[in-house]
Amino acid sequence: MTIMTDAPAVPAPARTLADRLRWALADGWVITRRDLSHRARRPAMVAVELLFPVMVVLMFAYLFGGGMTIPGGGDYREFLMPGMFALTMVFGLEATFTAISTDAARGVTDRFRSLPMSSSAVVTGRCAADMLNSVVGLAVMIAVGAAVGWRWHEGPGRALAAVGLLLLLRFALLWAGVYLGLVVRNPEAVMAMQILVWPLGFLSNTFASPATMPGWLGAIAEWNPMSATVAATRELFGNPGWGGGSWAAQHASLLALAWPLVLLAVFFPLSVHRYRTLDR
Fold first, then answer.
1. Distance of CA 64 to CAs 77, 174, 178, 198, Å?
2. Which end of the chain is more exposed for a tag (fewer CB within 10 A), N or C?
3. 182-200 residues labelled b (16+ CB within 10 A) or e (exposed)
4. Short-list 65, 129, 138, 139, CA closest to 99
5. In this structure, how many other beta carbons lie within 10 angstroms of the beta carbon of residue 237?
6. How far, in Å, CA of 215 to CA of 221, rounded?
7. DSSP labels for 108-145?
8. d(Cα 64, Cα 76) in Å, to the nearest integer?
9. Among 232, 101, 110, 98, CA closest to 168
10. What are φ and ψ of residue 142, in 5° steps?
């Protein structure tokens, strides 16, 4: 006698590289939609994330801008905005860190790992959701910059290249946040992440010239990945900058590409490996 069951068939594992890639993209998109839906249920948090950099722009543009001078002249607001764009890309990494560590601490990540899904989908899906939110945040900042008088002067092609460098920095830093979230697995440790983010954002050429800092501190600021992105985007937008004769200052565009690629080469494989080996 044959017994019929209604048990769902388990999909056959992907065998070719193209099949595995399609599988990973489909699973990653599911996780991306999950994270976006979580944000949609918390509009107050999203509003705070968008309003914080706007408040910083208004504070520096209208409260402190009158006392700022740019070497060689130039409008301070046009000088300020590329740095604020980059600062927006750096801030907010705590949200990624917290989401990853919370899922790991609550066992959500373990449930994902028990499903027949791509092993990289959870971390790539989370990064994709964050990048979509970053695009929205950057668009808001560009609109705010235009409202306070910022303009780009080098044409749309170079402006898009500058936006690409900003998003590349964000994408690379996200993987550092993902890896740390998987390692720490403690949402309450978000303060430790903030201790890393704030020096990265402010120990740079965003608000002050590295030449005015003590020698060792100025060298750290010049070689900061964010400083490279800020200097490169100021050049691409045609906005005034600090200049400088050091190798890092003269090759900011090269470093603005090299630093994110180095960070990706380090933290992307570490994040995927850490996800695969949780609890081992």
1. 10, 31, 35, 20
2. N
3. bbbbebebbeebeebbeeb
4. 129
5. 24
6. 10
7. HHHHHHHSSS-TTHHHHHHHHHHHHHHHHHHHHHHHHH
8. 10
9. 232
10. -65, -40
In whole angstroms, what separates CA 88 from the centre of its chain? 8
Whole-angstrom distance, CA of residue 271 vs CA of residue 274: 5
**C-alpha distance across the termini of the chain, in Å:** 45
> The pTM is what?
0.84
Percent helix, strand, coil in the chain, to 5, is: 75, 0, 25
| pLDDT mean for each 10 residues of the chain (280 residues) | 47 62 79 81 77 80 68 76 89 77 75 74 83 89 88 89 94 87 71 74 82 85 91 91 81 93 92 76
Q: What is the DSSP letter of 12?
A: P
> Which residue carries 């048990």 as its tokens?
7
- Residue 71 and residue 208: Cα distance in Å, rounded? 11
- Would you kindly state where each structural domain of the chain is located, as residue ranges? 42-57+75-276
d(CA 142, CA 57): 11
